[in-house]
Amino acid sequence: MNRPLYCGIDPGREKFGLAVGNADILRFAAIIPFGYAPEALECLSRGDAGRMASWKTEGVRGSFGAISRIFIGNGTGHEHYAGIFRESGIETEITDERMTTLEAGNLYWRLHPPKGLRRLLPRPLLTPPRPVDDLAAWIIMRRTLASR
Length: 148
Prior knowledge:
Layout: E1 5-10, E2 15-21, E3 26-33, H1 37-46, E4 56-59, E5 67-73, H2 78-86, E6 91-95, H3 100-111, H4 133-146
Parallel strand pairs: 1-5, 5-6
Antiparallel strand pairs: 1-2, 2-3, 3-4
Helix pairs in contact: 3-4
């Protein structure tokens, strides 16, 4: 039996993180420029990465399947994203996103263990080499699902 897929959104002023998956699996993740939320919505509605593929950071390219619900973090600009993503017809829910960026940095290093001399440094001293808004979106999704 296939488990339902969800979408997490970590809103921001210049970009937003998007993650598709469930509590255990990250199927697709991207960091998308602010103005491209309508294109992301179209892709989510089709269950296909489509035009989001160029912003992909984690997961698979191509199709990821139907989304059951969208969880949007309650941070900066969430009203803008909530308005856009509610148009999808997919149930949308605003949820707590406190400390997700910090947790996303730790998650980045669990998914991509440091190599070379970096592996000798304590993880709290390491900064991921890229933004982690996509992983913060996955954490938003996972936390909300775990609280149910």
